[in-house]
Write a structure and sequence with these properties.
7 helices, about 260 residues, about 20% strand, Spore Coat Polysaccharide Biosynthesis Protein SpsA, Chain A
């Protein structure tokens, strides 16, 4: 349901896109909301169903039912993760935003550790220090990170990590691109915002299948990277922004969430 003007603005908005994740959607939302409920301030969770063709829509509505501060947005067709995130960002109302994937590999318990770091930064990007992906996927991600870092000069070592928190001011520097998530740090750095990184947990998929193959992880991001690099180098220079790593120590991923 859309938010109404009479509702109070929350302190934190969490955005999570889902596409054909019926096997995990309910427990991910359940785990996320339990973690957000422990935060000291008010919050909202914006769950985007990106035109799923399975029962993801039903599972998201069922999971959100007990939580009045959950909103489920349904896109009429699959538009891609970038479009889903963009819709979520536009719907978010809080001064601080966060995002993560809906496949269960990000761990909501990391969110409370990232938020305090915004006291000295505008964006905190996760680092998947102990990744639970196939060797091929890790290799493709490593190549993509190197190419992106060389061309965009953002200084971030794991831009592909979906777990991020950032101040609302960063939104003004973003652009709606097909794969938005890995380019958010570059947009922020280009705008002069302070970006830091911190190691976060990463666990195997809790169910379902990966939506990203060789074409999505390499060729499409490469084309987007070339286009964004061209754009960013023609924008007016912003103030210098330092990128630093807060911690690269591997984080032990919690066990699969229980629904009890």
């Amino acid at each position: 349901m859309p938010a109404t003007a009479s509702e109070p603005v929350p302190a934190f908005s969490m955005i999570v896109p889902f596409f054909n994740e019926e096997a995990v959607a309910f427990r991910i939302v359940h785990e996320l909301c339990r973690e957000l409920a422990r935060l000291p301030g008010s919050w909202e969770a914006i769950l985007i169903n990106d035109g799923s063709t399975d029962a993801t829509a039903r599972e998201l509505e069922r999971a959100a039912l007990p939580w009045s501060n959950c909103r489920v947005l349904h896109l009429p067709a699959n538009r891609g993760q970038g479009a889903a995130l963009w819709h979520g960002i536009q719907a978010a109302r809080a001064p601080v935003l966060g995002m993560m994937d809906g496949d269960g590999q990000n761990v909501p318990a990391d969110i409370p550790a990232l938020l305090p770091l915004l006291a000295g930064a505008d964006l905190v990007n996760g680092i998947r220090a102990d990744r639970h992906d196939s060797r091929l996927r890790r290799t493709m991600s490593r190549i993509a990170n190197r190419v992106r870092g060389r061309l965009l000069r953002d200084g971030v070592c794991d831009a592909g990590c979906a777990l991020k928190v950032f101040r609302r001011e960063v939104i003004a520097n973003l652009m709606p691109v097909h794969m938005l998530n890995p380019f958010i740090p570059a947009f922020a750095v280009a705008g002069g915002f302070r970006v830091i990184e911190r190691a976060v947990a990463h666990r195997p998929r809790l169910g379902g299948e990966s939506k990203y193959g060789l074409r999505v992880l390499l060729w499409r991001p490469l084309l987007d990277t070339l286009a964004i690099a061209w754009l960013l180098r023609r924008r007016p220079a912003a103030r210098a922004a330092a990128v630093r790593v807060v911690s690269t120590e591997p984080v032990m991923a919690p066990a699969e969430p229980s629904l009890r």
